[in-house]
Amino acid sequence: MSEPAVRLDRLGYADLARCAELEKVLFRGDDPWRASVFASELDQGHYYLGAYLRPAEGEPELLVGYAGLAVVGRRPVAEASIQTIGVDPAWQGRGIGRALLRALLKRADSFEATTFLEVRTDNAAAIQLYQAHGFETVGLRKRYYQPSGADAYTMRRLPATAVEKGRSAS
Q1: Which Gene3D superfamilies match (predicted)?
Q2: Which CATH superfamily is domain 6-169 in?
């Protein structure tokens, strides 16, 4: 199946109700983010992207995915945290999550930041995606997701500059 025609762009406040709607579907059984949580993330200046389905002529765009990144510190000790990645279940498996992740990692690499994230231990597809992009498991957070009590792995990816330096040193 070919990848859908999507446009990645900065997430806007007008998109937050749709993000909250998707959260309820994607994270039911846990504590899905409300629109106000997304608004707080944008207010703090964190980097959030939306994946917008390119519509047929005359139809409105549809937000089918979103992702966010927080960066703290400065080079060479910056750290980034992937806050969330979500894709509408009807559009999963078509490269949208991968495109969002790559865009976040490009941003993190522009700060030379080591990037961290948490992922449910039972989310094999996400773990495989993260590993394919250089993440390694560095910890386990018991009962991280609430109220379900699901465990999470903490994963880490070194900045691209550090990986390149390691390759040139060997």
Answers
A1: 3.40.630.30
A2: Gcn5-related N-acetyltransferase (GNAT) (3.40.630.30)
